[in-house]
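Researcher: Structure prediction, please.
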Amino acid sequence: MDIESLIDGRIGDWLVKTGEMTEEQVLLILQTQNIGDSRLFGEIAVDLDYIDIGSVIRYLERSDI
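Model: Predicted structure follows.
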């Protein structure tokens, strides 16, 4: 399995494409969720200081969700 298939197809992918996070940071968050952390991707990213809340808001404003 390559790194592209592991990256979250939503906010994680967008944050990597915009240069706000690295692929490694995204993978760490996905692994954290896989071992039982129930927080949302953006919550974990903000708590780890990978991004600020403004990044999450920008994603939500441009997203179709």
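Model: The two ends are 27 Å apart (CA to CA).
Researcher: Thanks, that helps.
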